[in-house]
Amino acid sequence: MTEAAFERAAADALTMVGSEGVRALAEEIGKQRSSASVLSVRAFPGFREAARALLEAIGADGAAPSEAAAYLRGLAAGDALRAEEQEISLVWSGPSTHRVPVRTTSRVLLQLVEAAQHELLLMTYSATRYAPLTHALEAAAARGVCIDVVVETLQGAGSALSGTEPASAFLNVSGLRVWHWPPDRRAEPGAKTHAKLALADRQALFTTSANFTQSGVDRNIEAGVLITGGSVPARTSEHIQELQRTGVLQRYW
After folding, report:
1. pLDDT tens-digit series, residues 28-53
2. Which residue spans within 38-151 are E strands per DSSP?
């Protein structure tokens, strides 16, 4: 196999299914089972897609499955050790103070989008076009980042939101996928898509009270937390992917 192709496929698999998924892939590949048998396992969301890419990279050069499995086990072990290191920062919108410096919502949000290499997820209740965020998302899409945005809809919000659909804030970003929570999938009348977060590469999670609007990220007093490393970002990604897989969240476009 070509080293670059396999390493890239392995890195992508780690992003898609995490260290537990990569360990499962190593186990299946190490058993030297047929490709069809490996692809039939759906241990994690994205497992099949990651397995297919790895098998294609392995088969390109006829490499030994045992060699590939050993590499994947080492990759998973290293990621698990890295994941134990976690950093948490407080993030604020609104007025600042000289005595207590804090990280700002706008800067953290843009830095997270700018740092994403593989996948990016945004979730917000309300949204209006915020040019710096739009430009950062366009740049991320241009470098091949897979971008998903979950938004509330005017129908879902009822009388709480008016004007244009929140999803329209992201219309100019080519290739971006928008998701929503259909009202007929909500167990209780009046339930809202109220979470606000940004998640990059399963490694950095920013959760905040701020909507992704000019007021939310710059003007209002809003508070949030940036979590880098540890298991929380990956678990958040897995939860949202499961909501997508089961149809709780559905494509808006």
Report:
1. 888 887 888 888 876 667 788 888 88
2. 86-92, 103-104, 119-124, 146-151
Do residues 143 and 119 touch, judged by C-beta distance below 8 A?
no
Provide the β-strand partners of residue 10: none
Q: What is the tens place of the pLDDT at every residue in 111-138?
A: 999 999 999 999 999 999 999 999 999 9
What is the side-by-side order of every strand in the sheet holding 86-92?
A: 103-104, 86-92, 223-229, 204-208, 197-200, 119-124, 146-151, 177-180, 250-251
CATH for 86-251, among 3.40.50.2000, 3.30.870.10, 3.90.226.10, 3.40.190.10? 3.30.870.10
Separation CA 2–CA 187 (nearest Å): 50
What's the token pair of residue 249? Answer: 């969240």
Show Cβ contacts of residue 136 under 8 Å, excluding neighbours closer than 6 positions: 110, 113, 114
Structure tokens at 82: 């890295």
CB atoms within 10 A of CB 98: 5
What's the alpha-carbon Rg for the chain, to the nearest Å? Answer: 20
Separation between Cα atoms, residue 109 and residue 107, nearest integer Å: 6
Q: Where are the domains of the chain?
A: 3-83, 86-251
